[in-house]
Every structure is written in C-alpha cells, then in structure tokens.
Amino acid sequence: KAGVTQTPRYLIKTRGQQVTLSCSPISGHRSVSWYQQTPGQGLQFLFEYFSETQRNKGNFPGRFSGRQFSNSRSEMNVSTLELGDSALYLCASSLTAATNEKLFFGSGTQLSVL
Amino acid sequence: GNSVTQMEGPVTLSEEAFLTINCTYTATGYPSLFWYVQYPGEGLQLLLKATKADDKGSNKGFEATYRKETTSFHLEKGSVQVSDSAVYFCALSENTDKLIFGTGTRLQVFP
Question: What are phi and psi of B96, to 5 degrees?
Fold first, then answer.
C-alpha cells in the first residue's frame, strides 16, 4: 500500500511569489492535515480537511490556504511568500477524523524562500 | 490552550544506555497522548500512544505511561541503539482538535 506522497520534494521561490504544494493520502484515508516544521517553532498545525471540508485551522495568516478534492488529495497554497515561510511542510493522512487516530506522514516538501 | 513541553536536546548517549525524554502537557480535559519519531529525511511515524490515565504505550522497546497526576508522558528505553538516533516528538489531541506537538528532542546515539 503506497504511503502519503507529497510533491514536490524541494522548492525554491522568491519573496512575493506564490506556491502550491500537493499531498496524496493513503488510499481510503479521508482526513488530511498539514503542518509547518521549522527549527525554531517545531511542528505547527496549519489545517485539516475531511471529506472536502476544512474541519480545523491553526493560527496562520490568510496567505495560507488549502483545499481537498473528492479523491481526498489535498493542496496547500501560500501566497505572497515571505522569508519566514521557509520550512518543511508536512502532510498527514488518517482514515477518519477521530482525534486519537494514528496519523501517517509524508516526507514533506522543503520550501526555501529567497 | 493546550500545549506540550519537551526537554531540550540534543540528548547524547552511548549505545546500550538508558534513555528518558521528558514530556509534560497542559490540557483542559482528558487528551490522548502520543510519541512520534522522525528519522533523518523522513516524515514522522507514530511510535506509541496512550488514550487514558495510567495506560502504558509501548513499541520497539520504548515505553511511556500516561500520568494524569503529574500531567506527564515521559519516553523511556532500557538500552538504546545507534539506529534509534532521530528526533522524538511528544504530542496530544483532545476533543475535535488535531495533534499539538512539542518542539521535539534530538537523540544521538554513538557506538
């Protein structure tokens, strides 16, 4: 069974640009969550989608947005990139939206903003 | 709000040494508690979990006990190996919220 797939693996952008990251969950999983990982802040929750609906949202500015498609694949978009957006963006999927359920993480997309 | 506090790293040990990584939490109710591990260049993997007080989660020789009285979930292993070198994250989830992670503790094990 294929794991969680994130593309691209690496991205380099400049300030002011926008970027779209993609996440394909494990087959059959309907919940997808996104996290931002930085050395200083650790892992911070961005948002969670279940059955194409955003269930939870973390404390990030409106420049960060996401969506989920009917096949459970999810995309995350960051507009007007800032230097501080440089981070590893991790996607995780789970079968349901139950809070104590195991999350399966992808390897992440490493975004560098110059 | 809910939060997780982990000991600062890195933790540096020799092979076969005893490991403890401290984790304490703040929550309004009765959260589920987790330890996730991140090996170099990879995403996080669930190591173990506990869903109620006094539960002990265990996996691959690692153990952690949910202590409500001390709001703690310390990770332990009796004899670490070089292959255990990774970053370890303590996390909690409560009600409808998704996981809240600690800042992570890097473990380095030398032969």
Answer: -95, 5
